[in-house]
Design a protein that fits this description.
Layout (H helix, E strand, L loop, with lengths): L18 E6 L11 E3 L15 H17 L12 E10 L44 E10 L4 E11 L6 H15 L28
Parallel strand pairs: 2-3
Antiparallel strand pairs: 1-5, 3-4, 4-5
Length: 210
């Protein structure tokens, strides 16, 4: 399955200037999607107490769910949804280095075999290269996984410098703004000249629970 993986990497609500990008599977018919749910299982922990808390989780889930509902997606009345949605966040005490943060083999045209969320697609967490600890850099990734095929079909990413001085209300507004920008690219508009690479990222069936 062709999947061109491009990362232009945000944090969950405190970035001063987020840079947003996205990528998707060119073979997926997104017009068939009607229902969604969050990926089953507990949210992956980062090991950073600044991110592993209910406030961060709630902000992201409310923002993502709000955007999906605005686009007409709903929870299924019965049975499985058409797609799962998942997120991963990262916070680094360094100057942002977009060339190294959340690097995946797919970025070099090599088959994409792992995801930022260790619950699927290989089970490997993203990596980063240390840099000067002059500021905080935050990253948010949102994934859409096709339920019937267990394949990662869409990803949006955002990256920016974190302002720890924002109030709670400012953080709420910031994450809503960032997630809104991310979801302006969902569902994606198929480009006539889209280039595809032979790669595949699937979820192990054991990770999908009824």
């Amino acid at each position: 399955m062709p999947f061109l993986f491009l990362l232009i990497a945000s944090l969950t609500g405190a970035c001063t200037s987020a840079k947003v990008g996205y990528d998707y599977d060119r073979n997926t018919d997104f017009t068939t999607y009607r229902t969604y749910e969050w990926l089953p299982g507990p949210q992956e922990r980062t090991g950073d107490s600044r991110l592993d808390n209910s406030d961060v989780d709630m902000r992201i889930r409310i923002a993502v769910g709000g955007q999906l509902r605005l686009k007409g997606y709903t929870s299924p009345a019965t049975g499985k949804p058409d797609f799962y949605v998942a997120y991963h966040v990262g916070l680094n005490d360094l100057v942002p280095d977009m060339s190294s943060q959340y690097y995946s083999p797919g970025m070099s045209g090599i088959p994409f075999t792992r995801s930022a969320d260790s619950r699927y697609a290989g089970g490997h967490a993203p990596t980063s290269t240390p840099a000067s600890p002059a500021s905080l850099s935050g990253t948010l990734l949102v994934d859409v996984v096709d339920v019937s095929s267990n394949i990662l079909v869409w990803r949006a990413t955002a990256d920016g410098t974190v302002d720890p001085g924002l109030t709670s209300e400012q953080r709420d507004e910031r994450i809503r703004t960032i997630v809104h920008e991310m979801f302006t690219h969902f569902p994606p508009q198929r480009a006539k000249s889209a280039r595809s690479l032979p790669a595949q990222s699937t979820l192990p069936s054991s990770q999908i629970r009824p």
